[in-house]
Structure formats: C-alpha cells, structure tokens
Amino acid sequence: MKFEDLSGKVIYKRREAVVISIKNKNKRITGSIMVPGDKSISHRAVLLGSIAEGTTEIKGFLMSEDCLSTVKCIQKLGIHVEILGPGRLKVLGKGLFGWQEPREVLEAGNSGTTMRLLLGLLSGQDFHSIITGDASLNNRPMGRVVHPLRMMGASIDGREQGKKAPLAVRGGNLQGIHYRSPVASAQVKSALLLAGLYANGTTIVEEPVKSRDHSERMLRSFGAEIIEEGVKVSIKGLPRLSGQKIIVPGDISSAAFFMVLAAITPKSELIVENLGINPSRTGIIDILKKMGAKISFENKRNEAGEPVADVVIKYGTLHGVTVSGADIPRLIDEIPVLTVAAAHAVGQTVIKDAGELRVKETDRIQGIVSQMAKLGMDILPREDGMVINGGRPLQGARVNSLHDHRIAMALAVAARVAQGETTIENAECVNISFPNFFPLLESL
Ligand code: S3P
C-alpha cells in the first residue's frame, strides 16, 4: 500500500490479497517497540480539527486505511488537510458551520468510527450528504445512531428504514435530548455528543457501562463545555472550538498483540514505549495481570489530555479467568488476541457479556472460534462470548482472517507460538489499523 500527497489529497492504492506464512520462532521476546498512533484518537483529532476555528496540527496520526477514510471524507466536505510527513497532519478548520455540501458520496470504507461519528456531525449540517461503506460496514447496525439522531431532529434515510448504510442525511435545527443508550458504545456516545455541538440546549448521553472517553477528553481541550458524571455525559450546544496541537499516543489495541506474545513466551521482557493508558482502554492490561503476567508502567505522563506511559510486560505463568461486565468495553477490541493468552493459561477462561463482538467488522465470536479451532485451540462459542480451555498446544495450519484486521493479527500471534508453520490468508486487512504489523512482528 502506498500513500501519496497530491495537492492535499490522500490517495492509497487498493490492496491485493496477501497470504503470509509464520513459523514458531521459539524465541523469547525482548527489547523496546513503539506501536502506531491510537486509531480512535486519530479519527477524533481530524474530525474536531475540521470543525474548529484555525489550524489543528496532529503528530503520531495513524496512517492506516480506516483513519485515511476519515481524512478523505473531510476533504470531500471542503476542508483542507495537508499531510506534512509520516503521521504529521495539518487540518485547516473552518468552524462549526464551515463544511460544504459534498458533491460525491462519502466513503467510510471498513470504518465504523468514520461512519458513526460523521453521521453525528452531518446531522448538524444544513445540507444533503450520502455516506456508504464496504460490504462489511454496510452490514453493520446503524439504527443505534440513526434513531437518536432522528430524535434530535436530523432527517436520515437509508436501507432497511435507516438501519443500514448507504445512508442519506439532511441535517440542521437539532434539539438537545437526554438519551439512554441500550449499548455501551463509544461510537454511539460520540455521534450524539458531536451532534450535540450543533443542538439547541444540552445533550445528555447515558450508557449501561462506561465506554472509551476519548471524545469527551478531546472535546474539552478544543473548548466544548462537557460534564462527565459516571456513565452520564452532557454537552452544551454551539460552543466555539479552537484548533489544537495534538500528539496521538500509541494504540493499546495494537500493542495488545505484542503484550500477549510477551506474556505467553517464557523469559520474555518487552517494553512498549509511548503507549496510551487511558483507563477506559486498559482492560487488557488488568486482565493479563489478573491471569499472572507481570506488567508495570514507567515514565507516566499526560499528553493532550490523555495518560501515556512506557509499559513493561514480563512473562508469567498464566491461569484462566472470567472476563465480563464493565471490563468488556475496556478490552472489546483485544478479545481476539486474549483468546491466545487463554489458550496458554492453566484452566478455563470464560468471556461473557460480549455480544457486541457479533456486530464488529465480522461476527468475531464465530470468526475467532472457527479460525482458532483450526490451530487446535479448545474454544467454544457462547451467544455472548466464548469459553477457552487452556493447556492444549497449538498446531500450525492454514487459516483465514475473514477480512477482519484484528482476527488476522491474533492469528499471527497464535502462529508464533504454534508448532510448525501457519499460513494466514487475506492478511492484507492488517492495513485497516496497523500497516507495519508484520515487519514489526518479524523484527522481534
Ligand atoms: C471505537 C469504539 C468501539 C471499538 C472501535 C473503535 C471508537 O466500537 O470497538 O474499534 O473509536 O469509538 P463501539 O462503539 O461499537 O463499541
């Protein structure tokens, strides 16, 4: 995949199917690594920069397909985004009402964050727009954002009465609402908070359990009036947002693949530098520690409202645990790789209350179970999670990512500890969130 900067326009060449073979290296994992910038924070930095007044400069931006989908949509809305270098972006914001009616369909690709957060912002715009995604995204539930955005006054239509994309939006004239979301989803919460910027009065969102709070932190630093009380967040409409300098920390969801590899490989000691450790995202660290891995934070600091540290992970004898409830949104994207840790643990690991996995880039319960079973993992699906019996050694096999980036990377970690060779089909999808994943894995 190649990125070019032609007069401010982002272009990337469509990827071709990639098959990767990985052998068990039987080597301990040591040294220091850095992982690319946080995906959630990168999306939000460009989106908020585009509706703020003045320039927003971003360092550590994740140059992956998902985040570049957001950049391309913003460009179609008439905002100048300059790529200054790897991970360095300049967004020339034009204020809350500076976007132009797009002449073309907005394409969110594989990215749920792009589609759902943009739906919130487009709901505030007094113009017509159409947004679509790839086959996977157009199959994911959009009613969860469309329904409350309609309650606020947006006019949205689409497939299946607006439950699926492509969706057409005519926004404007929004009213603040108090919405109790049935799902703990940062994308739903963020879409409503972003629409709330355009609403008369205050918009309040309540969730069953707290989801990641990057939007709240960043909105505050751009100048919005936002109050968080437990699982309830409120935002006042029509603030003045001003451009910011944002340094995006490393993505804990990307680091998780290497943290698990170190935690299950005897005598390993790995340092992940400059990693985001926002408590709404550190579920994987808490659970690996509970299982027996040794993890500590060094050089703790704060960057652009987000806590950051160098994280040290040491091998430990792992034992099975139950993961459920409020921990699930804190590690939802790490569950594919958590199964590999569970397979190396003594005893049983039960993952429950994770029905949201069924509506990710793929049905991740079905996807993980079917592919990990090919490697000999003792794993069974449940309606809202899975059960893994640890201790059965993994065997190399031919597996498929099912076009899901996190399944591809979890399979690669399993391949590094399985006997013999594993071949992963459709491995190109790692470009969605982590274009450098395979070279980094190889270098360890
Ligand atoms: C994200 C929220 C989560 C997560 C996704 C990124 C975000 O999705 O799984 O990878 O950036 O807000 P949900 O909001 O659907 O839980």
Walk me through what this model shows:
- The protein has 444 residues and is an alpha/beta fold.
- It contains 14 helices and 27 strands.
- It has a 4-stranded mixed β-sheet. Strands 6-7-5-18 form a 4-stranded mixed β-sheet, with helices on one face.
- The radius of gyration is 21 Å and the shape is globular.
- Residues 40, 112-113, 185-187, 190, 211-212, 332-333, 356 line the site of shikimate-3-phosphate.
- Shikimate-3-phosphate binds next to helix 3 and helix 6.
Task: Please summarize what this structure is.
This protein has 444 residues and is of the alpha/beta class. 31% of the residues lie in helices and 29% in strands. The longest helix has 13 residues.
The CATH architecture of the largest domain can be given as Alpha-beta prism
Which molecules other than protein and nucleic acid are bound?
A: shikimate-3-phosphate
User: CATH class of the largest domain, anyone?
Assistant: Alpha Beta
Helix fraction by DSSP (H/I, runs of at least 4): 25-40%
How much strand? 25-35%
**Radius of gyration based on Cα positions:** 21 Å
Individual helix count: 14
Structural class: alpha/beta
Query: How many distinct folded domains?
Result: 2
Which stretches of 5+ consecutive residues score pLDDT under 50? 1-14
The count of DSSP E runs of length 2 or more, i.e. the number of strands, is 27
The gross shape turns out to be globular
What's the end-to-end separation, in Å?
23 Å
CATH superfamily of the largest domain: Enolpyruvate transferase domain
